[in-house]
Amino acid sequence: MKARIAVLVSGGGTNLEALLNAQERGEIPHGEIAVVLASNPGAYALERAKNHGVPGFAVPRKGLTQEEFEAGLAEKLEEYGIDMIVLAGFLSILSEEFVQRWPDRILNVHPSLIPAFCGKGFYGLKVHEEALRRGVKVTGATVHLVNEIPDGGCILLQKAVEVLPGDTPEVLQRRVMEQAEWVLLPQAAELVAQQLSAGEKG
C-alpha cells in the first residue's frame, strides 16, 4: 500500500511541481500525492495540482484563529486518508499540538544548509540575501522532519550548492531550487513513504 501524501503550499508551487514530476517519473514508488492544500486561495500551486489531476483545496489562513485553521487542515487530511505531509513553500506556522499528531511524518524543505541561515525571519529570498551578505562560498538546501523545535527535527537530506560571483538573491534562489530542493524533496518523500510502507507490512 502506498503512503498517501498531502502537500501543503502557500504560493507558486515550484516545489510541488518538482514533486509531481518526480512522481510521474516513478521516483516516489512507495508514495502517492493524494491532495494539495493551500493556505492562500490565490496560490498558483492549486492550478499546478489541477494540471496533474491531483485534488487541490484552499484552506485559508487569513481571518482564522490557529485552532480554526488547523481544524480545517485536519478535516481535509482525514478526508483524504493522509499518512504524511510535505511542506513545500508553506508559510503558515503549525502549532506544536498539530505537529505532535504527525510524529516523524511532516517533511519541510529549507533553502540553506541547516544550521546556517535558519530560524525566525529566515524564509524565501531572505535566506539567500543573508548568504550573499555573509559572503559564503557554498549554500544549499535541507529537508528535515518537523518537530516542535523551529527548524529542528531530524535532518534527512542536505545538498550543497556553489555560490557564484555576481549572484543576486534571485539567481541564487533559482540555482538552489534547481540543484538541491527539487532533487532532495522527492528523495525525502520516498524515504519516509518507504518507512511508512514497511511499517504497515511489519
Please give a structural write-up.
The protein is an alpha/beta fold and about 200 residues long. It is about 40% helix and about 20% strand. It is built from 6 helices and 7 strands. It has helices spanning about 15-25, 45-50, 65-80, 95-100, 125-135, 170-200; strands at about 5-10, 30-40, 55-60, 85, 105-110, 140-145, 155-160. Strand 4, helix 4 (about 95-100) and strand 5 (about 105-110) form a beta-alpha-beta unit. Helix 5 packs across helix 6. It starts with a strand and ends with a helix.
SSE topology sketch:
Blueprint: E1 3-9, H1 14-24, E2 31-38, H2 45-51, E3 56-58, H3 66-79, E4 84-87, H4 96-100, E5 106-110, H5 125-134, E6 138-145, E7 155-162, H6 169-201
Parallel strand pairs: 1-2, 1-4, 2-3, 4-5
Antiparallel strand pairs: 5-6, 6-7
Helix pairs in contact: 1-6, 5-6
User: Which quaternary structure do these chains form?
Assistant: single chain
For the biggest sheet, the summary is: 7 strands, mixed
Order of helices and strands: EHEHEHEHEHEEH
Distance between the termini: 12 Å
Large-scale geometry: globular
Report the sheet-strand fraction.
15-25%
Number of strands: 7
Structural class: alpha/beta
Describe the structure in brief.
This protein is α/β, with parallel strands linked by helices. The chain contains six helices and seven strands; from the N terminus they run βαβαβαβαβαββα.
